[in-house]
Amino acid sequence: MARKHSKKDPYGDLHQEEDTPESIPDCWLCGRPTGKTIVWHHPVPKSRGGRDVVPMHPICQQTLIANFTNSEMQRHGMDVEGLLADPAVRKFVDWVANKDPDFTATIAKKKR
């Protein structure tokens, strides 16, 4: 039986350059283009049965985690407008709107 890949570079076909550039997804929360680091966030937490994932900036995900519990995230589901109705999240999105896609900052800790 013939080998599918050479012994020296078994993953050679994965390293090939493509002519078409990848499209940069927009952040699910703020709508800005994502940067080098993309976090694939579960809008409905996995512990609550969520399977769908959406691209987000790390700072946007940290904001959601700091402002909502898993139960609240489950209630909102895929409804971004419901999350943006929260004053703290709206204030954050307005603040981060003009920042670089790879911008990071410390986020306030979760309210207990």
Structural write-up:
It is a single chain. It is built from four helices and two strands; from the N terminus they run E-E-H-H-H-H. The protein has a two-stranded antiparallel sheet with strand order 1-2. Helix 1 runs antiparallel to helix 4 (87-96). 29% of the residues lie in helices and 5% in strands. It is mainly α and 112 residues long. It has helices spanning 58-67, 70-76, 80-84, 87-96; strands spanning 39-41, 54-56. Residues 8-18 have a biased composition (Basic and acidic residues). This is HNH endonuclease. It comes from Croceicoccus mobilis. Residues 1-25 are annotated as: Disordered.
**Share of helix, binned:** 25-40%
**Helical stretch count?**
4
Q: What amount of the residues lies in strands? A: 5-15%
Distance between the termini: 62 Å
Helix-strand makeup class? mainly alpha
Choose one word for the global shape. globular
Q: What is the element string, with H for helices and E for strands?
A: EEHHHH
Number of E-type strands: 2
Arrangement of strands in the largest sheet: 1-2
Major sheet, described briefly?
Answer: 2 strands, antiparallel
Low-confidence runs (pLDDT<50, min 5 residues)? none
Mean pLDDT: 83
Biased composition (Basic and acidic residues): 8-18
Region (Disordered): 1-25
Protein name: HNH endonuclease
SSE layout and pairings?
Elements: E1 39-41, E2 54-56, H1 58-67, H2 70-76, H3 80-84, H4 87-96
Antiparallel strand pairs: 1-2
Helix pairs in contact: 1-4
